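Regression test attached.
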Amino acid sequence: MRFPKELKFEKSDEWVKLDGELATLGISDFAQNQLSDVVYMEITAESGDTVSKGDTLGTVESVKSAAEVVFPLSGEVVEVNEALADQPEILNSDPYGEGWMIKIKPSDPSELEALMDSNAYEKYCQER
Amino acid sequence: MTFTPHTDSEVEEMLKAIDVKRIEDLFQEIPESFRFPDLAIPSKLTEIEILSELQEIASANATTGDMPCFLGAGAYDHYIPAVVDMLLRRSEFYTAYTPYQPEISQGTLQAVFEYQSLICSLTGMDVSNASHYDGATAAAEAVILAYHFFRGKRKKVLLSRAVNPQYRQVIRTYMHGYEDLQITGDNQATSLESDLETIKRQIDPDTALVLLQYPDFFGRIYDYASLIDAAHKVGALVAVAINPTALGMLTPPGEFGADIVVGEGQPLGLPLSYGGPYLGLFATKSRLVRKIAGRLVGKTRDIDEQPAYVLTLTAREQHIRRDKSTSNICTNQGLMALASTIYMSLLGKQGFKHLANLCYQKAHYAAQQIDKLDGFEVVYKNTPFFHEFLVRCPKPVSMINLALQDYMILGGFDVFEDYPELENHMLIAVTEKITKNEIDAFCETLEKVTHD
Amino acid sequence: MTEPTVYELSSSGRKGFQFPEIDVPLSPLPDKFIRKDLLFPELSEQDVVRHFTHLSQMNYGIDTGLYPLGSCTMKYNPKINEKAVRLQGFALTHPLQPLISTQGNLYLMYTLQEWLKEIGGFAAVTLQPAAGAQGELVGGLIIHKYHKYRRDFKRTKILIPDSAHGTNPATSSMSGFDVISLPSDERGNVDLNSLKVFCNDELAGLMLTNPNTLGLFDENVLQVIQMVHKAGGLVYGDGANLNALLGIMRPGELGFDIMHFNLHKTFATPHGGGGPGSGPVGVCDKLIDFLPDPLITIVEESDDENPPLFGFYHPKKSIGRIKSFYGHFGVLVRAFTYISMLGAEGLHHVAEMAVLNANYLLTKLKNTYTLPYDRKCMHEFVLEGIWKDVPDVHALDIAKRLMDYGFHPPTNYFPLIVHEALKIEPTETESIQTLDAFAAALIKIAEEARKDPQILHTAPHHTPVRRCDEIKAARDLVLRCQVHNEKIPGSQR
């Protein structure tokens, strides 16, 4: 199971990668492993949306379950990964790379501080 | 007769095996004062006795087997071919459960897959589910789908007043828990001559869904293209409630822009059976497939690479999404869907088209003859209709129907209670079961009972 | 074993059914509305009969063998019920006929209402709901309207045990409530301390299945009901497990305010491969006027010369109509026939034998499979389908292997609170011989798990199709037959 060092994580299994003014979001390796084979990804947020931390980003479906994905940060949605609708299995094979879901312009830097770093998240996953 | 096989000695053997002295001891957890009540239910009966009783009860009814039926209004008296019931009686079909174990349920699953396909062909839509309870609840599920499609942001649903009154009642019951939703468009002040214009005027960007009926409750056929266009211009969804028999002849809603098609499948080989069990048809365009409630059967392969059918997209359903699912539906009308599949397959392309034509022609002959009767008038005679039409009568409909009973004729539906401006108006339906002689006799009798 | 679809069997020009010719003068057809083509298959009658006969041969039903699905009550479906429902007097009546011409049907429904009232201990019953889930919706809507009517707008929460069936929380959401999940204690009862926290003025009600989905009777049920009532909430009973209580206890007497019945479970009406069901709902006195419209009632009492006259009652604060017409009449006829044949003594006997059968089977299996709650069960019980020494073998594998032994598997992965759950309900119509054979098969499978686990992982081996690729089914959506080589819209590839 991978926990890339440069990423920050939310308790609900979303990851954040900060790149200058933009933040990229997705779900963690732990999350995709729990879901097992993803059959569908529906991103309900759209480019241009203003979102708050905790708002729904979308839903991930596997054969046996469905899970809500939420925004770990507030901000403005800049880009949505359209490829996921046609190839949801990328979430299983490459959750941190091609499996990115959304790029946003974060509006509140303090929210980033509140997220877990890679070590803390790894520890948290081990306890579950 | 309890259908339990246990002999006294077997019961003894079993009690011994579980180390319990008496059967009563198995119920000790029930609070004592509530245990083992006496039920005021009659004593048991044998098969011979119950059959005799049932025959007596059944004989207290008048049936469409005894007399021609001119009653429609949501349920229709069609002929059911002998093949349908014969196949339905195969107990591998009717004593089976929901096909959660596909390896031993391919019969049920493939039959439902074929049902889904036939409904798509019939309605011109891309996807059909495995059915809802009836036409009315299917219409309610369409409203729920539209609500969730817009994530609750659009708060208006427009219902045509010419949609079956029971459908509109059920929709309002179902949406009772969605308190911010406004269900409108069908209030009593809306004239039935111009209800479509009224609906069109009320369409705005807050509209989630427009629901129309085709043919409408009064049997009328309209071109909905411009109305649907107006709805789509503001991004609203359009649902059309259909009569399946009519689609043997008429352009299906999938070809004139409907996003959702719902309907009552009872005419497809299901007996009238005093109102149920019936069959809720539900089909959509492909973009709505993940929003559909109810079961879906999909085609796949097994580990030997053989074609196989399974329930799919189950992550939408109640047993997985629980409180986040959009609907609580668990059952589909399995056996009824099977009956309709057999019926549609048996009639086939030519049979189904001929059936529609038979109903159309006989209804039009009846309308022409009734219109000639003194005191009777076919109300919408300049509007195209399928197999149902509205007639203004010289006397109250309830009175006429009671009199018709003495002549062994089942008269049409009294629309007064649902449409207060239509006193003395009867909605008459004619199906392929009715002969020309029966139509002529009906006309003679109508004349007789209103001019004494 | 592949059976072509009706479209694949189609042969252009073939006719399966002949209607008489048109016997009236022709009216012109409205040109602009005529459909261009109808893409239905064309088969002969024999094609149709062979096709559906082949399909039936790939199916397993109760008439094939044991169907031990927990909380489904797959008991034998008496054949006299099939004869009853096909009597012309029942099958050929239109729901909108003048009431005077359907007194037989109205008598049957009225009597069934009365019997269900008696069995459940309720003041009134509606027969309108089409299925258990619809019955639950009626319950949720009644609770909603009841509080609204009392102008008590704070009550927004429904409590549901974590062992509950998925329809319970789904229904509560649909009824406009927030759902709070209640944990179960180590004996499988509702945890009273958790319940206490939510017994306040925001409590609309509690949905309780008793016996619960573990097959256990809640040892504190009276206290639970009392706590909810004291806080001003209503108690809804999910009656799926009523088979254990027929003539043994009446939920209405215990204090349940509303309860739905499942006629397709407790009252032996056929499951039909997924329906139709029927979910009548019983209520206590104070909720009668909220029931769906209409109820069947006596409008004129009988006298020396005439039987009673039956008609409709329109409840004054009704939640409205929940479906068209009066309910699944065809299913009601079957339930009426079944209860008539059983009689009061038969109902009691059914519950006794159902609970005896379940306990017998439990005793035979509890040394081979882990029993998470060591209590006497009622009509069903839950085992864990996993062992510490062979952790790669799961409940799914056990279920699939059972099919090779000629049995339908029990329910798996429900309730969610038991790990790798196998939920077993034999019902009262199974003999000791069948139970012994089933137990023997499960014990053999436990041995296979250690000696030859691969045979379980790749099971079933002797069924019409083998394990299916459900991932492919969900990713490459194919939801209907291809007709004339068209591209199927909706498929992702």
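Expected vs. actual: identical. The beta strands of chain A are 8-9, 14-19, 22-27, 38-43, 50-51, 56-62, 66-70, 75-80, 102-106, 116-117.
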